[in-house]
Amino acid sequence: MKDNQFFKKVYQVVLQIPIGKVTTYGAIAKFLGSPQSSRMVGWALNKLNCIDIPAHRVVNRQGLLTGKYHFGSTSLMQQLLENEGLLIKDNQVQFLKNVFWDPNKELN
């Protein structure tokens, strides 16, 4: 039950990420008051069966597309991000600083 509530909170944050921006598992975990739970954020996103939540906008702290294997196609996550105007090279968001959305600054 506790995980379910955490997962719902993760989804609520991910829904707020603007088109053309990305955030990290760690930034979401920190925003939710559990900075050591970035892997749990990843698990929550892996459990998604819903295309309405833009999980493709969540990357690791270096901007790597570590969640790409959960999109049915290893290139889909990259395609979705590129369609939003992001530059991806070698499975990594380029210019991460410029496209990073921090829920700790934007939602507080």
Secondary-structure blueprint:
Layout: H1 2-14, E1 23-24, H2 25-31, H3 38-46, E2 58-59, H4 76-83, E3 88-89, E4 92-93, H5 96-99, H6 103-106
Structure report:
The chain has 108 residues and is mainly alpha-helical. It has a single domain (2-102), classed as Orthogonal Bundle (Arc Repressor Mutant, subunit A). It has helices at residues 2-14, 25-31, 38-46, 76-83, 96-99, 103-106; strands spanning 23-24, 58-59, 88-89, 92-93. The strands form two sheets. Strands 1-2 form a two-stranded parallel ribbon. A two-stranded antiparallel sheet has the order 3-4. A hairpin with a 2-residue loop joins strand 3 and strand 4. Helix 1 packs across helix 3 (38-46) and helix 2 crosses helix 3. The relative contact order is 0.20.
**CATH homologous superfamily designation:** Winged helix-like DNA-binding domain superfamily/Winged helix DNA-binding domain
- The CATH class name reads Mainly Alpha
Identify low-pLDDT runs: none
Tally of extended strands? 4
- How far apart are the termini? 26 Å
Shape: globular
What structural class should be given to the helix and strand makeup? mainly alpha
Q: Looking at CATH, which topology would you report?
A: Arc Repressor Mutant, subunit A
Mean pLDDT: 93
H/E element order? HEHHEHEEHH
What's the Cα radius of gyration? 13 Å
Helix content: 40-55%
Number of domains: 1
Biggest sheet features? 2 strands, parallel
- Sheet with the most strands: spatial strand order: 1-2
Strand content: 5-15%
Number of helices: 6
